[in-house]
Amino acid sequence: MENSSMVTDFILLGLTDNPQLGVLLFGVLLIVYTVTMLGNLGLVILIRVSPCLHTPMYFFLSNLSLLDVCFSSITIPKTLANLLSKLQAVSFLGCVTQMGLFIIFASAECNLLASMAYDRYTAICHPLLYHVTMSRVRCLLLVAGCYFGGLVNMVSVTASITQLSFCQPRVLPHFFCDIPPLLALACSDPWITQILVVGCGGFTLVTSIVVILVSYMSVLMTILGIPSASSKQKAFSTCASHMTAVGLYYGTTMYTYLQPSQRGSQAGNQMVSVFYTMVIPMLNPLIYSLRNQEVKAALWKILKQSP
Fold first, then answer.
1. Are the CB atoms for 52 and 43 separated by under 8 Å?
2. What is the DSSP string of 203-262?
3. What is the pLDDT of residues 29-67, one digit of tens each?
4. pLDDT by residue (tens digit) across 99-142?
5. Alpha-carbon distance 83 to 131, whole Å?
6. This prediction's pTM
7. 273, 12 Cβ separation under 8 angstroms
8. Backbone angles phi, psi at 127, to 5 degrees
9. What letter does residue 178 receive in the DSSP assignment?
10. Computed from CA positions of residues 270, 271, 275, 278, in that sequence, does the dihedral angle turn out positive or negative?
């Protein structure tokens, strides 16, 4: 066990070791981060100041935007700094903290997407009871439950990881402290942690996917029974954006976290991680607003009122 020692920090390999490409990636990621912040925070402010958007659906959407802001902020700023730094080091405590926050926000987003599907099910399948069922108190409890589930996952996984010993060299072949590459550096057997990762991640993914599938199967059956073509189109349009976001997010996270022991897929995992940590949070405001007439109408009204 000569290579096993008390690791106090890790060296992140980052996205590239080419200085010229690093400068180019820095510019691209800076634009991505700026667009992500402006898009998501702008959507939160718009929902906040527009009375016509004070409904449960937009309450969940504003929380999704806040999650995307947090999601991006725990990975992109550090990645930007590392792209311009010769020594891409992160302390063990900083690595575990980044990973823990990432688990909370990733799990909370899964749960929130399921809550949004339940909201659409209630609105379309039980419209007369919608405002009673989706009361403000219930919406707040659902959002709180989303974060609580993420907190439970974070405590379970990080507590297990901190019990592992890590080998030298302490090189982490990733651009942030993600679970699969971190487990690949463990000297001690990480099978308990792997079980916890698959168990916690699998439970969160499966339960939220079941809620989404059941909700949208009921929504589809209800929509097909609507006689009016225009009403059908309106009902479909309220669900299309959410289903697009669900497909993008769940597809990439399932690829990464339901196979944590596959050490040979680090390059593929890194590319997928770039997509769901940086690209999807930037796309979500566009997905939810470009085809949403209520959001565009509220934005136009605000613009007309401005001097």
1. no
2. HHHHHHHHHHHHHHHHHHHHHHT---HHHHHHHHHHHHHHHHHHHHHHHHHHHHHT-TT-
3. 999 999 999 999 999 999 999 988 999 999 999 999 999
4. 999 999 999 999 999 999 999 999 989 989 999 999 999 999 99
5. 49
6. 0.88
7. no
8. -65, -35
9. -
10. positive
